[in-house]
């Protein structure tokens, strides 16, 4: 590949990365807005989150289409090819994260049972953790830093702990009405949705490691210690 071709490919890669970063920003915004809508019982804000999910889907399609064009027309090699493949995989996880934010927004209520207020707050904290993980993951993506990605993936252990504690306390509740039973089930479902945010970010982090190292190790819990990933 000559110098002129490489320069043109670099420019196209910057556009590809910018599209992906725009999608990350949209997803992070949706999670934060869903958190605010859910914790503050703001149904109007929830509608904005649901509407934003359409734009996230469009950005996913744009990234995937641009990635396919690059693979076909540019015949990229080495780190270029890994970057494109990782980006096309990452947007799938981002799209699902946008769905989880939209689901959280759909469970926003103008009023709620007072006894469930602590659970709403704790689920909202899981959403904030998911947003934090998302932001740190994109920083690792921009810098193409495997070690940063591994550190972000380790945060999923905290998300799992929050899920387990919430499920334990939700199961201990004794519903007094059919409406309370329905709300408990919905909160349990939403707890699982928020935990999935951490799983998706972990998947993204695996692809970031692939970008730099050429391998996708299992990232979670104790396995993160000294992963010994060779550069390929």
Automatic annotation (TrEMBL):
Locations listed in the record: Cytoplasm
Main location group: cytoplasm
The keyword Metal-binding is assigned to this record: no
The entry's keywords: Cytoplasm, Phosphate transport, Transport
Domain PhoU: start-end pairs: 21-107, 123-208
Family matches, as Gene3D superfamilies: Phosphate transport system protein phou homolog 2, domain 2
InterPro entries: PhoU (IPR028366), PhoU-like_sf (IPR038078), PhoU_dom (IPR026022)
Pfam families: PhoU
Keyword Ion transport in record: no
Matches recorded under PANTHER family: PHOSPHATE-SPECIFIC TRANSPORT SYSTEM ACCESSORY PROTEIN PHOU
Protein's job: Plays a role in the regulation of phosphate uptake.
Subunit relationships: Homodimer.
Family per record: Belongs to the PhoU family.
Protein name: Phosphate-specific transport system accessory protein PhoU
Organism: Sphaerochaeta associata
Lineage start: Bacteria, Pseudomonadati, Spirochaetota, Spirochaetia, Spirochaetales
């Amino acid at each position: 590949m000559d110098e002129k071709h490489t320069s043109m490919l670099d420019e196209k890669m910057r556009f590809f990365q910018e599209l992906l970063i725009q999608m990350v920003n949209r997803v992070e915004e949706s999670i934060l807005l869903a958190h605010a809508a859910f914790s503050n019982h703001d149904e109007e804000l929830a509608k904005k989150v649901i509407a934003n999910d359409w734009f996230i889907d469009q950005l996913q399609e744009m990234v995937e289409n641009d990635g396919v064009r690059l693979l076909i027309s540019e015949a990229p090699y080495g780190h270029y090819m890994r970057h494109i493949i990782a980006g096309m995989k990452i947007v799938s996880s981002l799209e699902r994260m946008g769905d989880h934010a939209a689901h959280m927004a759909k469970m926003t209520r103008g009023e709620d049972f007072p006894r469930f207020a602590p659970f709403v707050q704790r689920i909202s904290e899981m959403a904030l953790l998911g947003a934090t993980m998302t932001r740190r993951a994109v920083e690792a993506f921009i810098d193409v830093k495997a070690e940063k990605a591994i550190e972000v993936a380790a945060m999923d252990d905290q998300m799992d702990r929050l899920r387990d504690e919430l499920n334990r306390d939700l199961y201990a509740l004794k519903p007094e009405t059919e409406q309370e039973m329905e709300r408990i089930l919905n909160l349990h479902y939403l707890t699982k949705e928020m935990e999935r945010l951490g799983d998706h970010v972990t998947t993204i982090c695996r692809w970031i490691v692939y970008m730099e190292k050429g391998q996708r190790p299992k990232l979670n819990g104790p396995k993160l210690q000294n992963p010994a990933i060779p550069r390929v």
